[in-house]
Automatic annotation (TrEMBL):
It comes from the Bacteria. The chain crosses the membrane at residues 24-46, 67-85, 91-113. Keywords: Membrane, Transmembrane, Transmembrane helix. The lineage of its organism: Bacteria, Bacillati, Bacillota, Bacilli, Lactobacillales. The keyword Transmembrane helix applies. This is Integral membrane protein. GO terms for cellular component: plasma membrane. InterPro entries: DUF805.
Amino acid sequence: MIEAYGKFWRNITDFSGVAKRGEYWWPAIINWILGSLIVTIIQLIMGHPISEIYTWQDVGVSSIRNIVLFIVWIATLSVSIRRLHDTDRSGWWILIQIIPLIGTIWFFILMLLPGKPGRWN
């Protein structure tokens, strides 16, 4: 789990390799939990939702949030493309998510599929 999360961040710009199922799912779960906790704590400290801006301090918090979200998005994009490569598909399959509902479900299924045999020798 910790190794997969470390690999998630170390390979943030690797769009050509492969990623095992655990290397995709552990970071997804950890990021969801950490993101929820951090946003909840920040909202409790601020006293209002993080998306609402009332002061210059809120602008700073919102800007930092957006930068962090962009970095996590890039890392998630790269691990998703590597995961697609492991299932012997092109990284362009990530665009299947553009199709409402069915595309999201299909992408979820693709992330669950096992990798091709012999890929990890």
